[in-house]
Amino acid sequence: MSQHTPAALGQRTVSPSLPRRAVLALAATLACGAALPLHAQTHASGWPTKPVKLVVGYAAGGATDVIARLVAVKLGDQLGQPVVVDNRAGANSNVGAEAVARAPADGYALYVFTIANTINATLYPKLGYDPVKDFEPIGMIAKIPNILVVNPKLPIKNLADYVRYAKESKDGITFASSGSGSSIHLSGEMFKMQSKLKMLHVPYRGSAPAVTDLLGGQVDSMFDNTPSALPHVQAGKLRAIAITSAQRSPLLPDVPTLAESGYAGFDVQSWFGLAAPAGTPRAVIEQVNTALNKVLAQPEVRTRLQELAATPDGGTPDKMRQFAAAEIKRWREVVKESGASAE
User: Fold this and answer.
1) Pair 231, 149 in one domain
2) E strand or H helix at 85, and its extent?
3) The domain that contains 228 carries what CATH number?
4) N or C: which end of the chain has fewer CB within 10 A?
């Protein structure tokens, strides 16, 4: 093992033959370099020198894609290079995640890491990537709550009615989802675990066909993403009886949360963050994080996110790392108890 000489500890040695004035000048130069903010040192390195790819694990048009494109344009302005969205749909976002996990760790391939990736950690017996080890978190983007909606023809005006209907119905109550293992599905499973109600899950291949059958009365209810359900609620075609986030939504101020309706601590939201392949230089991670937080602070970005029922939620890479770890643990328990499996 090498000895802890000044050079080994990162200190600089100066020849005693140098004039005192030169020594002081060198010391001042080193001190100034160390005092530079991290983002300033990164910019000096020249990254990025070409467009940055932002991979989305879903097809164009969905909430993840819309949010990614909003952020990408503004992020490109901050970084000085275009940020180009690349849709890699398939296997509940696993195709896109695996592509980025295997990409060079040079900062030119980023990924929109979502709640699905923390669910998939347990839902899929085998993944082509590790959601923890293969990614370096950059920062959170936003969160979107789900809404418990019912067909308005049912005698259900509020959550108490929902519980009573489920208990009094011979077959319990049905709830649709966009697919087994989706956040829409597992929101219902989590409520089922807490309420102990008899609830039957009816999976569909996507949110659109599930909502169609809910509107037609083929299923009773759904814990749908707010952007998908909101137009139908506003048109009176669906009735919103509770929201899954800890706080009420400004877009539906009269709809209570599940937490305030008797299910303390219930807080489920779809969420979106940025991540890079593991091994990406820390300076690049910090630079993108700084740019992302500046983007999320822009009034026009915040307004557009709020129109999508999304709450901007920036912060540090460590904040996202801790949050994702907690989500993996939480959904592991729900997936196992519900018996959910990948389709």
Assistant:
1) yes
2) strand 83-87
3) 3.40.190.10
4) N
Based on the fold, state whether residues 92 and 139 are members of the same structural domain.
yes
DSSP letters, 2-39, are: ----TTTTTPPP--TTS-HHHHHHHHHHHHHHHHS-HH
* The predicted structure's pLDDT at residue 341: 85
Query: CB–CB of 223/177 below 8 Å?
Result: yes
Cβ proximity of 252 and 235 under 8 Å: no
Q: Are residues 55 and 97 in the same domain?
A: yes
The stretches of 226-298 forming alpha helices (DSSP H) are 226-234, 282-296
What's the rounded Cα separation, in Å, for the pair 227 and 242?
Answer: 15
- Residue 115 phi, psi dihedral angles, 5° rounding: -55, -30
E strands, 280-340, where?
Answer: 311-312
Full-model pTM: 0.82
- 54 and 133: one domain? yes
Residue 330 parent element (H or E): helix 317-338
Condensed to tens digits (0 to 9), the pLDDT of residues 285-338 reads 999 999 999 999 999 999 999 999 999 999 999 999 999 999 999 999 999 999
Q: Would you say 220 and 151 are in contact if contact means Cβ atoms under 8 Å apart?
A: yes
177 membership: H or E segment, kind and range? strand 173-177
- Distance in angstroms (rounded) separating the CA atoms of residues 172 and 193: 14
What pLDDT is stored for residue 61 in this prediction? Answer: 87
> What SS3 state is found at 296?
helix
Q: How many CB atoms lie within 10 A of CB 322?
A: 13
**Helices assigned H by DSSP within 86-225:** 94-101, 115-123, 159-168, 183-195, 207-216
Where in the sequence is the domain holding 172, given as residue range(s)?
145-243
Residues of the chain with pLDDT under 50: 1-44
Contact criterion met (CB below 8 Å) for 117 and 95? no
Could you read off the pLDDT of 330-339 as tens digits, one per residue? Answer: 999 999 999 9
Cis ω on the peptide bond leading into residue 48 (within 30° of 0)?
yes
In the chain, the number of structural domains is 2
pLDDT, one tens digit per residue, over 51-96 is 999 999 998 988 899 999 999 999 999 999 999 999 999 999 999 9
